[in-house]
């Protein structure tokens, strides 16, 4: 393959998706091409970002599929139809089962807004992560990109970047700093790294 074909899974605003789209435009992401974006919630703004960039987008709701297994089977069907090589979870706030993660072993990566193994695992997503970091009182947090396996936030780490916590931070302020200083940098960089490896391996 010349470029890995990437599907991005999202649940919300999609600033990490935007970072990937921008990286594709600037050439930071050169070994892969984002060809498909799937949201698992209604009216996710991320799908508007995909549409603006001319990327196919779709909403797939677990409820409408009839459950988690049917939802994941639908994803597999959609990805196979599009010959997807790599799945990027970019603010995808739902846990995938082992059946799905083992189907795509070493082909799914995720961005987590903390330095794993801190503030991760079930229930640790979005603002909750930053609330937990502030209430613990850590002075340094950050973000991690890792492979996805059956253990929530438990797969092999690809990249991490540290970010300072400042006096007076609110969860929202800290979330924004972690995004700007870490997530939007290491997600595109990790995606490029993994895509380059996939292209080389073929
Ligand atoms: C990001 O901070 C991402 O790291 C986090 O959700 C946010 C989504 O923002 N993901 C998780 O917490 C996964 N456990 P976005 O929709 O603007 O990219």
Describe the structure concisely.
The protein has 202 residues and is of the alpha/beta class. Helix content is 42%, strand content 22%. The protein contains 7 helices and 7 strands.
Computed structural class: alpha/beta
Order of helices and strands: EHEHEHHEHEHEEH
Largest sheet geometry: 7 strands, mixed
Tally the beta strands.
7
The CATH architecture assignment turns out to be 3-Layer(aba) Sandwich
**CATH fold naming:** Rossmann fold
Radius of gyration: 16 Å
What top-tier CATH class fits best?
Alpha Beta
How far apart, in Å, are the first and last alpha carbons?
Answer: 7 Å
Please state how the strands of the largest beta sheet are arranged side by side.
Answer: 3-2-1-4-5-6-7
- Total number of helical segments? 7
Overall description:
- It is a single chain.
- With 202 residues, this protein is an alpha/beta fold.
- It has a single domain (4-201), classed as 3-Layer(aba) Sandwich (Rossmann fold).
- The protein contains 7 helices and 7 strands.
- It has helices at 15-26, 45-52, 62-65, 68-81, 98-103, 127-136, 171-201, and strands at 4-10, 32-39, 56-59, 86-89, 108-112, 140-147, 157-164.
- It has a 7-stranded mixed β-sheet, with helices on one face.
- Strand 1 (4-10), helix 1 (15-26) and strand 2 form a beta-alpha-beta unit.
- Helix 1 (15-26) crosses helix 7 and helix 6 (127-136) packs across helix 7.
- The chain is globular, with a radius of gyration of 16 Å.
- The N and C termini lie close together (7 Å).
- Glycinamide ribonucleotide (GAR) binds at residues 10, 12-16, 46, 90-91, 93, 111-113, 125-126, 129, 179, 183.
């Amino acid at each position: 393959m010349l470029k890995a074909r990437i599907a991005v899974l999202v649940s919300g605003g999609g600033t990490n998706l935007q970072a990937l789209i921008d990286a594709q435009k600037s050439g930071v992401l050169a070994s892969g091409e984002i060809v498909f974006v799937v949201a698992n919630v209604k009216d996710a703004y991320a799908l508007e970002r995909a549409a603006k960039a001319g990327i196919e987008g779709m909403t797939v709701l677990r409820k409408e599929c009839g459950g988690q297994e049917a939802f994941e089977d639908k994803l597999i069907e959609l990805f196979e139809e599009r010959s997807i090589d790599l799945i990027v979870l970019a603010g995808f706030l739902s846990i995938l089962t082992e059946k799905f993660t083992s189907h795509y072993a070493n082909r799914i990566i995720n961005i987590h807004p903390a330095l794993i193994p801190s503030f991760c695992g079930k229930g640790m997503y979005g603002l909750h992560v930053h609330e937990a970091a502030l209430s613990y009182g850590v002075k340094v947090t950050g973000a991690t990109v890792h492979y996805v396996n059956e253990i929530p936030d438990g797969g092999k780490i690809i990249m991490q970047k540290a970010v300072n916590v400042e006096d007076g931070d609110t969860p929202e302020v800290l979330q924004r700093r972690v995004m700007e200083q870490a997530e939007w940098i290491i997600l595109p960089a990790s995606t490029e790294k993994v895509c380059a490896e996939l292209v080389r391996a073929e």
